Structures are given as structure tokens and as C-alpha cells.
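thread: overnight batch results

M.L. [08:02]
morning all. the overnight job finished for the chain we discussed friday. pasting input first so we're all looking at the same thing
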Amino acid sequence: MEYEILNNIKSPNDIKNFNDNEINQLCGEIRDCIITTVSKNGGHLAANLGAVELTVAVHRAFDSPKDAIIFDVGHQCYTHKLLTGRFEDFSTLRQENGLSGFMKPCESEHDPIITGHSSNSVSAAYGIYRAKKLKGEDGSAVAIIGDGALTGGMAYEALNHAGEHSGNFIVILNDNEMSISQNVGGMSKSLTKMRNKARYHRFKFAFGRFLKHIPFIGNSLYKFFYRIKETFKSIVYRNNLFQAFGFNYLGPVDGHNVKDMESLFKIAKTYQRPTVVHVVTTKGKGYKLAENSPNSYHGVSPFDINDGVKSSGKITFSDIAGRTLCEMAENDDTICAVTAAMSSGTGLSEFEAKYPDRFFDVGIAEQHAATFTAGLAKGGMKPYFAVYSSFLQRAYDQIIHDCAIANLPVCFLVDRAGVVGEDGETHQGLFDVSFLTSIPNITIYSPTYYEELIYTINLTALTDGVKAVRYPRGRQIPTNLNIDYKSDYTVLSGEGDRVLISYGRTFTEALKAKELDDSLTVIKLNKIYPLPNDLAQKLKNFKTVDFYEETVKSGGIGEHLSALLFESGFKGEYNIHAVNNEFVPMAKAEVILEKIGLDHNSMLRS
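M.L. [08:03]
and the structure it wrote out:
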């Protein structure tokens, strides 16, 4: 599509001299481009629409890439991509070999780091900033963090560290849902307006220099007036957490007024101390459907712009997990559900509505969630922490230290396990099996079907120790076969001397392979770890054993089985088919599975 201004933007420098009318037109074209592209490709919509003017103002006030600009999570960086020379490729967003939906250094020098998970922007930006100072380089670093990301403890660790030091390090708070500092009253509003003016800061600096130059008493006078000012400000503004961390605080400012934001960002650049600029934005800005329902338009599949996002109406593994917990909770008042800011994504919305006293959304804080779950279990409850596989990675220490050592009866519902697809490397759920199987006192299940998932979740409420139930994104692929999922493993016998072993979603591909070659024996693992003691003996008579799993090879179930096989004296050929210890880029899930050899045709060729 042709855009009068956007088509000609090759770098952020191109927008620095635009007048107000040109800026307004540019923002409108960006918003239209984002809506059009996401409606075709899917992606993160509401957050990006809310950050259009903010990103334009950032690029007018700062000098990327000399100034490192980092968007927390990164799902609001689409405008950044459009302003940094990637407009011509923007139609490839989230497509195989196309532009990532997050910041990615291999795409552009304007992307300092890979983003995809939450609450790490301040840490990364401050590290970059300190490196610049150590090397004597010009430029600053800017972390743009949403209020939701401030529910993650890592952000506070970074603020605590950065606030201890001087220097022109800047954090921009994109406040689009929650109030960070509750400034009320006419006096507060008047002072906020005054403090957001450049002339106020010029006067403040000049007055401070004047006081310091008064012979003998200058420094004492400066400190005296500074204490009075801070005390007065604390009373009027009721203080705020950023000042408590040692940051200077500017704002709040309208996040859809480029001129006001640009002015405040330039003021922040004059400070030689860490500064937070508080920007208030509206999620979904400019697209009424997204403004009215920002959560529904956070991450979306392709949709019709006029009609908006429509529910497919089809049940998913996440839905089944949530419904199962609701049914269990109806008859057992010790059942609790925990989520890390993903109640809808993990299917817990119904549980939240029905059992609010036993539902806990801890924010983007997976570490806390795991230990909180351990505490619930220690207190006699039966907690279930529903979490995406790629986000569970952040709680590895807590699973070991707080759950497994004490052998507490907690259960992790590991959603989005395996290949996810278009969100790319940061979101593929390929590592949970490897890191979970390294932990003692843990049992892992990987259901293939809805009925099996229901049975397994109910089973975990009856057993001790740490449990994990992992399942893929999306829907089941049903079968007409009567699969026994209540035993540790199921055998579908064939007359040949080759056996395929798998679990979870990959088992459905093994079934398709058997339909085309009935001589194959197929074994489905129901409990994938610890492995059944008799499985190695069961396999000794086969000449070829092929193990297929939707995870990285290193530390996977295939490697665990190989140790058992060769300890038992197995003399045949054993092959593990999994991700070859590499990060998997974005593409449709079915394309990825075919590339890594986990589709039925690859199984037949092996």
C-alpha cells in the first residue's frame, strides 16, 4: 500500500524536522499500516496501537542507534520497525523468513537486543548504558517499559541497581492500564504542568548554580533548599516508588501528544541522574474495537478489520484444562489456580469468575508464582500453576528449591508446550522437558487428547510430589482408535521389526505413519517421566527404535530412554528425532514440524 509519508521513511532522522501536520499524518499512516498488516498476519495489536505517538516522540528526541532504545517485551515495537527502515518488509511480519514481531538485532542496528519476555528492559538498557560509559562512547540508553511489565520482579532489581548511580540513564514508563503514582488535587495538577515545562528546568538548574557559587554558604544553602523542595514535593505528590529508588521523576504526560512527550524527553536528557518519564497511553488507540476491548486485541490471529476479532468457537487444550479445574474445584475446596498475568491465555477465565477466592493472578512474576504455589501446597491446598512453557523457564530455581526439594504436591500445567510458531525463538516451548527432567521428585505427563488431559489433571490431585502436565497450543487431532491412556504407555503392535515411540502431539503423526505402514509398531508414552521400568525390556526385540519428540534433543526423553536401552543390553539401531539443540525461528507450526522431521512422512522415510 502506498503511504504519502511512511513510504519515504528510511531512518529515524527522516522525521526529526517534521511539522505538527506531518507528524499527525505520519501517526495516522503508521496506525493504518499496523492494523492492515496485523489483520492479515496476526500479531500484537492493542499494545502497538497505543504506542504509536510515544515511539515517534522517542525517535524525535533520541538518536538511535547511538542511543540504545529497548522496548520491554517488544510487542509494542511495530512503529519502531516502521521508523527504522523496515517499512518495505513490514508485510512479512511474523511470516517465515520475515520480520519478527519483536526486537531482533539481526534485522537492524536499531534493535539492541532480542526481546520477547517481560521485565528485562531496564536491566539490558542499563547494562548497555554502563558499557558506553566505560568505553567512553557518546549516547544514552532508554528502556520503554509498560506498567504490566512492572509486575515482574526483575524490573525492580534493575531499578534498585540503576538508581544508585548517577548518569543520564532514562526509563520511559508506558502507563496504559494502572496508575503508578496517584497524584490528585488541583495543586498536584498545577505543579505537574509546571514541572513538565522546559523553562522550569532551566530556571531550576540556573538557580542551583547560583546558590552553589555564593561564597562560604553556597553548598549549605543549596542542600537546605533541596531538602525543602523534596519534602514539599513528597507531601503534594505523596511520593512515588521511582523516587524511592533514586530516580528523578517527570510526568505524567499525554502519551498521544508527540510535542509534549518530545519536550519532556529532551528535558530528561539534560539530567545527570537516572530519570523516569511517566507517559499515559490508551491501548488500542485509533481502532475503536481494540480500545473498547484491549485484552481481546492483545495478541490476535488474522481478522476482518470491519468486523473485528471473532472467536473460533473451537475448544482448545487450554480451555479443557481450565474447565477441568473448575469441575474439580466444585467438589474439592482445596483446588486453587495460579497464573502469571495469563488467565485468558491459559483458560482460567471461568475459574477466576467462579472461584475468585481460590484464583490468584500474581502478575508477570513466574518465580513468585512457583514459590507461592509451593506455599499454598505447604498450607494444605492443591495448587495448579497454569503457565506457558517458555515462561516457566524463568522459575527453574524455584521449582528446584521451593517445590521439589520439599517434595510438595504442586502441579504445573505447562501450556504451549512444543512448537508454537509465528512468535519465534522466544516463545517456542521446546525446553521444559529438558530442564524439568533434571529435577528429582518430579513426574511429567504429556497428553495427546482432551479426554486424556482431563484424566491426567484429575490424577495429579491424587498423587504426591511435583507434577507437570504439558500440552500444545491449539486443538487436539482426534482418532477413531481406542487409545489406552491410563497406563504408563500404550503399544499399537505391528508385524515389523521397527518401532516408533512418541508422546503428546507428535504421537498423532506416528499414528498417521502407521496407517500408511501397518507393519510399524507404535508406542505412546502417557507418563513421559520417569520412564516405565519395563519399557527397555519391551524394546529389546526390535531391530530399529525411532524416538520422536517435540523438544530439544539434549536432555529430552529420547536421551533418557537411550541410557536405559543400552544399560539393558539393546543391540539394535536407536535414533532420536528432535530439535537438534538449536533455536527454532518463526514459521507456521506445521511447517516447522515438517522441517525438523516430526511429521508422518518424515517418520516413514527414516
